[in-house]
C-alpha cells in the first residue's frame, strides 16, 4: 500500500492581501493533511504564492515598487496567515525562488525538445486579472466593458509574438485520460464541465508573453517570459525538487494525491496542467478537487468589488478553531457558501460550547467531584454501552472512504450525530442517581470518557488546538493520535488519573 500522501492548496496570487477564500482553501487542505497523518500516512502538505505575471507587475508599478519587493511584502502576509490558520504545511513555495525557476526552465526545455512548443503570433482576448486567455464566445459586454463570462473580469485585446503549446494535439489523450481515471476531477459536476469544454475543441495555448518583463525568461529566447500559469502550476513539482534530486522528495510524493483548488481555476488544473505533464511524459496528479467559493452576500469576494472579509479580523474576535469549524461544517463542501457573524455565533454557541464543550465539562467535573479525577474501574458494558461504543467501529470504513473521496459532509455529520448521542447517553444514564451502584456508575463514566476520546480524535483535523486540550485529559499527545483507535473501546483502561479541563468555548451573548 502506498503510504505517502501529497496535498496542495492553490498557489495564491499575492496581488493583494489574503481574504476568506484563501483561508477556506488552506483550512480544507489542512483538514485532509491532518486526517491522513493520524490515519498513519506520511504526508507532504504544500502551500505558497505565485508571484509572476502582468497583474503583479502592474500592481507593483501602481505602488511605485519593484515587483520583487512588492512580492516580498505581500507574500509574507500569506506566509503569516498560514501560521495564524494553524496550518500543518511542510513547505511554503514562492515562484520567485531559484529552485522553482530551475524546475520551470527544465520543464520548458523538455516540452521544446519534444516539439510541443512553437513560435507564432497571438491575437485574442486576455484578462490580466485572471492571467487567462478567453475565446470570443466566452466574452460579453457589460456596462460598455468586455468581460469574461466565466470570471466577470475585464478583458483586453492582445496581439504579440508568442510561443504556443500544442494543446489541440492533446484533446483526445486528455479525454482518454479522464475516461481511464474517472475520479481525477471531483466533484462530478466539475468533471462534466471540464469534459464538455475539452470535447468542444482545444486550441493551441499561448505560453509566453513579450509585452512585460516580470516572469521567468524562456530559456531559448530571453525576449519572452513564460506564461504565468505554466510557471505557476510547476510549483507542485518544483517544491519536490523536480527534476529528481538526491533527497527523493519527487520520487516519494509525485504524483500528487490531491490538488485542492477553487472552481474558478479548474480549467488550468484539469486541462492545461495534465496536458503539460503528459506532453513532458510526467504522470499527472491523482486528483483535482474544485471546491466552491466563500461568498459575500451572493457574490464572490474580490478586491475590485470591495466585499472582502478579513479572516484575521474574525480570528481576532472569535478564535481560529471556531472559524475552522464553521467553514468546514457550515459550507457544504463542493458548493458555494457564505459566512456571517450571526451564523458563526450560532455555530459557536450550539455546536462548540453546548454540544462539545459542555459534554467534556460535565463529564470531567462529575468525575472530579465523585472520583477525585481517578479513572473509573470495574466497568461492565451492557448491550446499550457496547452498541453505543461500536458505532465508530461499524462506521470506520465509511468514514475513511468518505475522506478519500473528499466527502467532508459525511464526516462532519457523523461527528454531529455522535455528539448528540454522547450527550444523550450521559443524560439518559443519569450517573448522579447511580452512586450506590459503583460498577454501573463506573461503566457510565468510562463509556462517556471513551466517547469524548473518540469524538476528540475525529475533531482533531477540524479544531486541532481544542481537541488537543481535551485529549490531554487522557495524556494523549499530538504525535500519538491514531485515528484507527476510534475502533478500540478499552483504550483508557491503563490510565490511572485524569487531568482537569478548563472551559473550551465561551458562549457568546446575543442581543435579540
Key words describing this protein structure:
Isoleucyl-tRNA Synthetase, Domain 1, four-stranded antiparallel sheet, six-stranded parallel sheet, 15% strand, 512 residues, 18 strands, elongated, alpha/beta, single chain
Protein model, in words:
The protein is of the alpha/beta class and 512 residues long. 46% of the residues lie in helices and 15% in strands. The strands form five sheets. It has a six-stranded parallel beta sheet, sandwiched between helices. A four-stranded antiparallel beta sheet has the order 5-4-8-10. α10 (266-279) links the parallel β14 (258-262) and β15 (288-291). The longest helix is centred in the C-terminal third of the chain and has 31 residues, at 341-371.
What's a concise summary of this model?
By secondary structure, this protein is α/β, with parallel strands linked by helices. The protein contains 17 helices and 18 strands. The strands form five sheets. A six-stranded parallel β-sheet has the order 3-2-1-14-15-9, sandwiched between helices.
Outline the fold blueprint.
Layout: E1 4-8, H1 20-38, E2 42-49, H2 54-62, H3 67-84, E3 91-94, H4 98-113, E4 117-127, E5 132-134, E6 139-142, E7 145-148, E8 156-165, H5 171-180, E9 185-186, H6 188-199, E10 205-206, E11 208-209, E12 217-218, E13 221-226, H7 228-233, H8 235-238, H9 249-253, E14 258-262, H10 266-279, E15 288-291, E16 294-296, E17 299-300, H11 311-318, H12 320-330, E18 337-338, H13 341-371, H14 383-404, H15 408-429, H16 438-459, H17 464-471
Parallel strand pairs: 1-2, 1-14, 2-3, 9-15, 14-15, 16-18
Antiparallel strand pairs: 4-5, 4-8, 6-7, 8-10, 11-13, 12-13, 16-17
Helix pairs in contact: 2-3, 11-12, 12-13, 13-15, 13-16, 14-15, 14-16, 15-16, 16-17
